[in-house]
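ESCALATION

Customer reports they have been waiting on this structure for their group meeting. Please prioritize. Original submission:
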Amino acid sequence: MSITTRAAVVESGGAPFTLSDVVLDEPGPHEALVRMVATGLCHTDLGVASGGLPFPLPGVLGHEGAGVVEAVGSAVTGVAPGDHVLLSFTSCGGCRNCRGGHPAYCATWLPLNLIGGRRADGSSTVSRGGEPLGGHFFGQSSFAERALADERSLVKVDADVPLDSIAPLGCGVQTGVGAVWNVLKPVTGSTVVVLGAGAVGLSAVMAAALTPATTIIAVDKVGERLSLAKELGATHTVNAGEADLGEAIASLTGGQGADGIVETTGSVAVLRQGVDALAARGTLVVVGAPPFGTEVSLDVNGLLGGKQIVGLTLGDSETQTLIPALVRMVKEGRLPLHRLISTYPFADIDQAVRDMRAGKTIKPVLTF
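Update from on-call: job pushed to the front of the queue and completed.
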């Protein structure tokens, strides 16, 4: 039986989010109906809403959901009605990367999560007035009071942890954490630089502070965010509006350069500066995503000292393992995620968007 719910719909590229009644399809065999309690707002949502990615509009976005399972499909085994769940990306479960523990690199990741707008079989999960809408965003489309989610998007979590305090784990936080833990893997005494002190960058700072890295450098142009980075574990900060990035990193590392860099800004100019600031055998993780087709020029000879540039999606995370661990760390106070979060009623989604674009908030979380 289909269900009517309230959702934030983007009518066309560049249009605002508007609340509208929509109809969810009944859960398929591997889907669950989730009553949303909270959902994070991410720059990816804004990029799609602006028309920068070929997602079918009108549509329902949202991909950092948190809620309570209300009903499950006939083949669902991992969750049951009443379970508290976080919603993250989906994947096919059967390709080489999924079977190898790297579902963020699923062979069908792009159509299943970012640009398809429908289930893998082409059917729609959400409609309005009898017309299908773009949905199934990251297997969830959580900008709605209820979401129809893929089972592979769902992670059962500790019911004692408030869902609005952990919603961002589904995308932004696990991306920053995974860049450090899953790719850089800092060793004793190493230097980690984080370019950009937004939600992803500050998550990377917090993750680096939980490793043997002894020098953690946060870089941004906003003084308040740099101050917060220091409170969250950065040992040094660089205001990129006041200092040359390469010179600053060289000075802080005794001329050696950085062992690991996390690039979150999406600026190819910043990416190039980061590559140049790497130490021999250093690694830069590309997290920030500029528009499709963007290219960057590099000094090839500068790479021959063993430098590595690694692209990253969603922290290369295996969500069923990483997210419950992060939830426990939030609960125990070891991952102070609350320092990043500002909450907004769901009806105020456009205010949250404006505040995020203006830099007034780091991680908006919509509550229902």
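Sent to customer with the following note: The longest helix spans residues 172-184.
Escalation resolved.
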